[in-house]
Amino acid sequence: MNDFSRLEEIEIYLLLEGIYRQFGFDFRNYALASLRRRIWSVVRDEKLNTISALQEKVLHDPACLERFLLALSVHVSAMFRDPNFFRTFRTKAVPLLRTYPYIRIWLAGCSTGEEVYSMAILLEEEGLYKRCRIYASDMNEAVLKAAKAGIYPLHLMRGYTANYIRAGGTRSFSEYYTAAYDNVLMRPSLVDQVVFCQHNLATDESFNEFNVILCRNVMIYFDKTLQGRVHQLFYESLVNFGLLGLGDKESLHLTAHEHSYEQLSDEEKLYRRIA
User: Fold this and answer.
1) What is the mean pLDDT of residues 251-269?
2) Calpha distance 74→218 (Å, rounded)
3) CA-to-CA distance for 86 and 208, rounded, in angstroms?
4) 56, 68, 80, 255: which has the highest count of C-beta atoms within 10 A?
5) Are the CB atoms for 55 and 131 separated by under 8 Å?
6) In DSSP terms, which residues pair with 261 in a beta bridge?
7) CATH class of the region 83-273
8) Domain spans of the chain?
C-alpha cells in the first residue's frame, strides 16, 4: 500500500468516525470499495479537493450532511423489483401468513418506498392487507419523506407494470395510481397500514416482533461484521416460524444463524425461522 492510499484510508476513517460521534450515523462497517467511490463523488460535487475538506464541511454544514447521507445511502429501487421474488412470496409466504390473525411486517431499508407500495398491493390482492401492519424503515429522513409522498415519474410506469404482471398481479396496475402531468400519485389507501420510521441498521436495536422481515439488496453494501450484526438483529426480531426475505446476491450462508432457517424456495432467498 503506497503513502497516498494509506493517507486516503486515514481520511476516510476520520470522516466516518466524526460523523458517527457527532450525528450517530454509522458507515464505519460499510464495504470500503463502494464507500470510497461514493465519498469521492461527494468531494467532487461539493467542489472540494480532499476527503479531509469534506469532513470539515460535513461536520459544520447541516445541508452538506444531508447531501452526504443521500449520496452514501443506496437508493436503487423499482416497483416489484425482481418480480419472481414477489411471485414466490405469493405462492410460498401468503399461505403461511393466512394462518395469523394479525401480521407485522418490517421492510428494512425501504428507500423511496417502491417496495412498500409493491407489498401493499400484493397483500391487498391476497385479502390480507387489512390485518397487516407494515413498518417501513430507513436511516435517511429525506427518502422516508419521498416514500410517504408516493409520487413517482410517469415514464417509469410501463416498466413497473411489466414487473407487476410478471410478479403475478391479478388486476390492472393502473388502478393503484393517478397520473398527473409527468408524475403519478400512488393510491393513498395503500399506506393506511404503513408506519414509516427512521431506523439505522448499523446502530439501532429491535423495536418489535415481526412475522415477516424483508431486507433486500441492502446488506451487499455492508462488510462481514455489519452483516453479522444485522442478521442477529433480524433473528431476534422474528417470531418463531417468521419469514425473512433477502436479495438475490445475499445469503445466510456462513452466518451465525445459517442453520436457524429453512429456505422456502430453490430460486429465491426466502427463509422461515425454525430454531
Assistant:
1) 94
2) 8
3) 24
4) 80
5) no
6) 273
7) alpha beta
8) 3-72, 83-273
Q: For residue 185, count other CB atoms closer than 10 A to its CB.
A: 13
Specify the pTM.
Answer: 0.88
Determine contact, residues 193/59, Cβ cutoff 8 Å. Answer: no
The greatest distance separating any two alpha carbons of the chain, rounded to the nearest whole angstrom, comes to 61
- Pair type for strands 270-273 and 238-246: antiparallel
pLDDT digits (tens, 9 = 90+) for 19-29: 999 998 899 98
Give, for 151, the enclosing helix (H) or strand (E): strand 151-153
Which residue type occupies 242? Answer: G
DSSP code, position 171: S
Q: Round to whole Å and give the CA distance between 96 and 99.
A: 6
Query: Could you give the CA distance from residue 212 to residue 200 in angstroms, rounded to a whole number?
Result: 18
The H or E element that residue 270 is part of is: strand 270-273
DSSP-derived secondary structure for 196-226: EEE--TTT----S-EEEEEE-SSGGGB-HHH
How many CA atoms within 13 Å lie on the side-chain side of 243?
A: 25
